Amino acid sequence: MLSMKTTPNHTGVKISGDYFDLDELNQAIYQVIGKEGEFHGYEGSRLRILGVSYEIRHAAQGDRNVESVFNGLHEHTKKQHGFIAPDKNIYFSAEVLWPELLYAAYALRDFVRLYADKRGDLLADTHAPVIAKFQALVLECLQGHVPNDEYAAILEAFRKSPSVNDYAIQYVDLLNLKYIDMTKQQREKSLSTIAMKLALQDPEYQAFRKQVIDAATPGKLPIHEIGIQAEYPDQVEW
């Protein structure tokens, strides 16, 4: 079963599941976000989501964390059915920074809409429900770490958040790097603020986006191709 829990230092979220849970999520992401260049104005957000998918895929391949989890098979069940079997399953997991994961959850809302427009009736579709569960798990994990009134405001912002069409994805890097540099206590206090900033695209974001557009204009580049000067640390204290 796919699950999420915040990391010990509140730096990010550990996404866990067996191989099939993680592979199902990855396949759903690939289907919903479409092919490169398919959705004009969304390529930056698509690449951002693929970054999260990259971690999930490597987790499923055993390249990140591996742990054994009780599978519900008790000794009396083994005796009742007369067979020998392990009582644990192998689960895989990977950590993703909180701002990165929140943005992926927000951006996927747009991609599900685009996917539905392309596909039509989603009644028999198996991918959109997987994405919906992923988004719900992100929000459920967030709920445990922000006050109730702030969580309610975040949910409302999630419902009404503007499109991520032509989003300045470098802003996610800015929030990621600021968040990494915080103490555990600072992260706990700022998590709801970061969630709101991503959802509402506030004046700080708008000013940042203008800077990115100004940098992209001379070379007539898409704004998602503008790099940032800062670098991520080699090691993150999760």
Total number of beta strands: 4
Major sheet: arrangement of strands: 1-2-4-3
Broad structural category: alpha+beta
Biggest sheet architecture: 4 strands, antiparallel
InterPro entries: DUF6904 (IPR054199)
Task: Compose a concise summary of this entry.
The chain has 238 residues and is an alpha+beta fold. The protein has one domain.
Summarize the SSE layout with pairings.
Layout: E1 3-6, E2 12-17, H1 19-33, H2 43-60, E3 65-70, H3 75-81, E4 88-97, H4 98-119, H5 127-143, H6 148-160, H7 170-181, H8 184-200, H9 203-216
Antiparallel strand pairs: 1-2, 2-4, 3-4
Explain the overall architecture:
By secondary structure, the chain is α+β, with helices and mostly antiparallel strands. The protein has one domain. It is built from nine helices and four strands. It has a four-stranded antiparallel sheet with strand order 1-2-4-3. A hairpin with a 5-residue loop joins strand 1 and strand 2. Helix 1 crosses helix 5, helix 2 crosses helix 4 and helix 4 runs parallel beside helix 8. The chain starts with a strand and ends in a 22-residue tail after the last helix. Pfam families: DUF6904.
